[in-house]
Amino acid sequence: MDGDAGRDRLSRLRHTLRRRGIDALLVSQPDNRRYLSGYTAPDHGIQESAGFLLIPVAGSPLLLTDSRFTLQAEAEAPLFKVEMYRKGMLTLLEQLARKLDLRTLAFESDYFLHSVFLRLSALAKKRGLTLRPERGLVEQMRMIKDEHELDVLRQSTRLNETVFQSVYHTIEPGMTEREIALALELTMREMGAEGPSFDTIVAFGTNAARPHAVPTDRELRAGDLVLIDMGLVYRGYCSDMTRTFVAGKPDQTFIDRHRAVRQAMLAGIAAIRPGVTGAAVDRAARQVLIDAGYPVFGHGLGHGVGIAVHEEPRLSPRGTKQLRAGMVVTVEPGLYLADWGGIRLENMVIVTDQGCEVLNRDTTSLDL
Amino acid sequence: MDGDAGRDRLSRLRHTLRRRGIDALLVSQPDNRRYLSGYTAPDHGIQESAGFLLIPVAGSPLLLTDSRFTLQAEAEAPLFKVEMYRKGMLTLLEQLARKLDLRTLAFESDYFLHSVFLRLSALAKKRGLTLRPERGLVEQMRMIKDEHELDVLRQSTRLNETVFQSVYHTIEPGMTEREIALALELTMREMGAEGPSFDTIVAFGTNAARPHAVPTDRELRAGDLVLIDMGLVYRGYCSDMTRTFVAGKPDQTFIDRHRAVRQAMLAGIAAIRPGVTGAAVDRAARQVLIDAGYPVFGHGLGHGVGIAVHEEPRLSPRGTKQLRAGMVVTVEPGLYLADWGGIRLENMVIVTDQGCEVLNRDTTSLDL
């Protein structure tokens, strides 16, 4: 993130805060923290926070953290004044609320522990501070990516495909799901990714019938279908792609079913443009499988991708949100048959003014 | 966990709930969930829960999860009745609260999002249900390990040392901190661990002056000191060990400082027995470094280890809790000098009736 992007994000957030009558927002959610400040330290679970942002409507934005992270925070978040807490975040927050004369403090209800809220409430009562639980203020902003973010997302996808290809060519009978998943995650790091964006899914044969399969010690046999759903984090942005192929020569059943899923994916992609709802795109893809007489997948068609691998908007039967240019979403229909296996195909796309731009170029088994 | 251990844990928890006038406890914390039920699915962040336990004081304990996890839950948690939610956990909880005629429901305040609490409050108001935020009910129980848990912790430490040794012998000038950390984490998985219990620390030279160093691309040079702090998860239980050594021949300064830290560790271990406080053990170790004229470390001397790598009790200046037989703690004094580097040594011990049992056998550079 460059300084201009950072200043623009802060200015837009402050505009929202002013409109809602909020004096300052306490940001606890790590992806929101990174988006607004550039500070990359991850939390180790919500109970071990790497810091908080305190963004008043006027004056310097602040980054609150402990001694382990102050150097990193100062280096990564030049627009923020770093304040170190020694006796816990709330003690420092109390001092700052007094100093900044805050009357109304908003916090992120979706990423704030109840026990911390109880202590914050006690503090607020003592200081005459009004607390405002808020949801999605920063997540809303994150949905629309700027040019720089879109560029990094393109690069993240490109790297993900390069990793996939380099491992794909080594896959042979006898390898286990776990071995392939490990090879993919290792290759990601070797090639410069921060790590996987989610636990890599590698599933053979009937194991692929479970949409969220976890890699096992099952060995690949010639003729097995192989489903790989993988993503990585590159310069803070996630990628996500699924391919399904056969170890050896696919039979006609596989080819027919694979074509149906591919048609569903293409129908979903064709439906994407500004103004349509997530539900409409989901329906366009789902209908292709229904018309072909296949069972419908139990998950949504896709989800937003950015700093988080799952974010807004959702493409699902319940997705009422209208798509807008600059959103980035996955399109991932699936066909699951418990006794046979599963096929899922997934590409990522950018919503553009005219329609969408498909980020993926990998054609593995898409030419069946 | 065998069935007897599971029944015993549930029975002790119910005893506590009855004493506190609670009809049922909703368990959201993943380590507590695993401890009570045997169900191993991890959360992907607090916002993507793999399920909840609902433990009434009488009747079947329940495991609430969604369709992705029901098979796993049924296989891993035989003492629990698995209930699947389709429209979110709270909708199912509302039905169960009515069916079980719950009047007072406790939840884990330290692992419960404020936004979920708001929705739970609305539900409670509608149903005349009293909510009780609780802290540490299950964490208290987890502090004292049973024989089976102690055995797995011994095995986890043994495996951690085997992994350390196998990589230690490959370390040579030119390798980077990141490469060594990656090799350790890869070897853990190859040798049967579930994964690292925390992000592996590998720090050369001055990088080791930061207690929470993150591995960099710095290359090892002959004569550099090397600090490795690593742990793994084996059958659900964590290990944690630190060794510091020199690539090549240590000079007298390193030998002197290393001996001082070793003496501090041994003094800490010697102070451990039932009845002493965490603060007293911390002081015993810290005093050795003070007496030798070294700066004191800014972190606590140690922490409990079990299903979580950091749990109660804490060995620190603020550790008022008395040690009891069956607790498992680390003892990890350090000496940090910004211009020179750092030395930390860490063993894990079980508190026994007479004193303690040291789990580690690795002697790398401890014979200086």
TrEMBL record, chains A, B:
It holds the Pfam family Peptidase_M24. GO terms for biological process: proteolysis. It comes from the Bacteria. GO terms for molecular function: aminopeptidase activity; metal ion binding; metalloexopeptidase activity. Residues 153-353 form the Peptidase M24 domain. Coiled coil: none annotated. Keywords: Hydrolase, Metal-binding, Metalloprotease, Protease. InterPro entries: Creatin/AminoP/Spt16_N (IPR029149), Creatinase/aminopeptidase-like (IPR036005), Creatinase_N (IPR000587), Pept_M24 (IPR000994), Pept_M24_MAP (IPR001714), Peptidase_M24B (IPR050659), Peptidase_M24B_aminopep-P_CS (IPR001131). Residues 9-144 form the Creatinase N-terminal domain. The keyword Ribosomal protein does not apply. This is Peptidase M24. The lineage of its organism: Bacteria, Pseudomonadati, Thermodesulfobacteriota, Desulfobulbia, Desulfobulbales.
